[in-house]
């Protein structure tokens, strides 16, 4: 399949491009930049074959590749894996003119980004996301990091990539459930900023869940455009970037409490339902907008309820969210469609009532 690639520019001080299209992986060597000599390709076990292909591509470009295989999924985002990557870079003599490639889903791009952010206090990273979620969210914007026993993404750095290459051909092998999970972050962008996304999903949910449809491609480009605009204005999350965290306080709690057996996107879907209910209880989110959450998520086959009966553990996890300040818990809620705002210090009874509503 050949087509015209789309390009979206991100950043103000450090500007980079997100390239979206079929076959755009061919542009990886050029995207690394002129001064790079060695390239660490961090990939999950599942993408071993693709890792070898990229390894050959780097060799053919006259560069020196180093393949680093890491566990699949959240198991990659650990201090142990990070330490293993540092050891391999050290043994290979990686210098500041060398680069890291994150080839995989959001878990790998988060890890690879943090490897690059921390190695020699910062080397270049080019992100090559291979999941929908990685393309529309994780690989763009420079949030990198790992989990700790206490919670999700608690250690990390803001380290923008040198380039992001979204080759839509990668979606061919992605399990359907992972594609659908990625749509949760797309829908999130619809609710916080771009209602046209919701119109597209609602008009044809089955096209939205087809990896090679024009609808999905438009959704990818729209979601990346939302993220690009926000992170360009507020890279370090001192203002509007917090809106990208819509649904994530509860979502990260579910992921941790359920020991990362839930996909991130699935947890975000339930997290959005939770915070929509919380916003409604607080008199902020209109009931019809809550209903629209439920309908859109259901049409895609995303979960809307959490029946784990783990409220105390979830509350503890939510108490560690990065948006909190001291003892003040802070949530992103919708005052209207595409009108996000902050809910600060809601009463504990309200938090629990919202939980009860999505547990029914
Ligand atoms: N940094 C950010 O701004 C940001 C944004 C959103 C999410 N995230 C993080 O992203 C992670 C979730 O990312 P995800 O949903 O991509 O999950 P994932 O990275 O765990 O990937 C899902 C599964 O798909 C496999 N896979 C990847 N590409 C494949 C392909 N093309 N074909 C077949 N299998 C493939 C992976 O090995 C894994 O088993 C979470 O850790 C989340 O916290 C980060
Ligand atoms: O880019 C952001 O900012 C986001 O919040 C996007 C989220 O979808 C993403 O899951 C992010 O990793 C969450 O960040 P965290 O700071 O809550 O760990
Ligand atoms: Zn997310």
From TrEMBL:
Binds 1 divalent metal cation per subunit. Can use either Co(2+) or Zn(2+). NAD(+) binds at residues 72-77, 106-110, 130-131, 143, 152. Its EC number is 4.2.3.4. This is 3-dehydroquinate synthase. Transmembrane segments: none annotated. The gene is aroB. Catalyzes the conversion of 3-deoxy-D-arabino-heptulosonate 7-phosphate (DAHP) to dehydroquinate (DHQ). InterPro entries: Dehydroquinate_synthase, DHQ_synth_AroB, DHQ_synth_fam, DHQS/DOIS_N, DHQS_C. Residues 68-179 form the 3-dehydroquinate synthase N-terminal domain. Pfam families: DHQ_synthase, DHQS_C. It catalyses: 7-phospho-2-dehydro-3-deoxy-D-arabino-heptonate = 3-dehydroquinate + phosphate. Its main location: cytoplasm. Belongs to the sugar phosphate cyclases superfamily. Dehydroquinate synthase family. It comes from the Bacteria.
């Amino acid at each position: 399949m050949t087509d015209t690639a789309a390009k979206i520019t991100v950043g103000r001080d450090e500007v980079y491009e997100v390239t979206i299209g079929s076959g755009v992986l061919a542009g990886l060597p050029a995207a690394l930049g002129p001064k790079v000599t060695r390239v660490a390709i961090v990939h999950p076990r599942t993408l071993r074959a693709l890792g070898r292909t990229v390894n050959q591509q780097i060799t053919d470009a006259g560069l020196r590749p180093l393949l680093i295989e890491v566990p699949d999924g959240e198991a990659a985002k650990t201090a142990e894996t990070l330490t293993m990557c540092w050891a391999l870079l050290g043994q290979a003599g990686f210098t500041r003119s060398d680069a890291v490639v994150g080839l995989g889903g959001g878990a790998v791009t988060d890890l690879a980004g943090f490897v690059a952010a921390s190695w020699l206090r910062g080397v270049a990273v080019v992100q090559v996301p291979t999941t929908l979620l990685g393309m529309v969210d994780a690989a763009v914007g420079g949030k990198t990091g790992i989990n700790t026993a206490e919670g999700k993404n608690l250690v990390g750095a803001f380290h923008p990539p040198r380039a992001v290459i979204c080759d839509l051909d990668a979606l061919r092998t992605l399990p359907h459930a992972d594609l659908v999970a990625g749509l949760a972050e797309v829908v999130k962008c619809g609710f916080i900023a771009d209602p046209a996304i919701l119109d597209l999903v609602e008009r044809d949910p089955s096209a939205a869940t087809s990896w090679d449809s024009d609808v999905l491609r438009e959704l990818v480009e729209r979601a990346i455009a939302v993220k690009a605009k926000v992170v360009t204005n507020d890279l370090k999350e001192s203002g509007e970037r917090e809106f990208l965290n819509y649904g994530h306080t509860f979502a990260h709690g579910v992921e941790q409490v359920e020991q990362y057996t839930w996909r991130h996107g699935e947890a975000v879907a339930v997290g959005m339902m939770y915070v929509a209910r919380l916003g409604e209880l607080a008199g902020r989110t209109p009931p019809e907008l809550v209903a629209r959450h439920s309908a859109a998520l259901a049409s895609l086959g995303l979960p809307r309820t959490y029946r784990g009966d783990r409220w105390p553990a979830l509350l503890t996890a939510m108490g560690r969210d990065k948006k909190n300040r001291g003892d003040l818990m802070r949530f992103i809620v919708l005052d209207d469609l595409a009108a996000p705002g902050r809910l600060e210090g809601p009463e504990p009874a309200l938090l629990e009532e919202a939980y009860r509503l999505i547990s029914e």
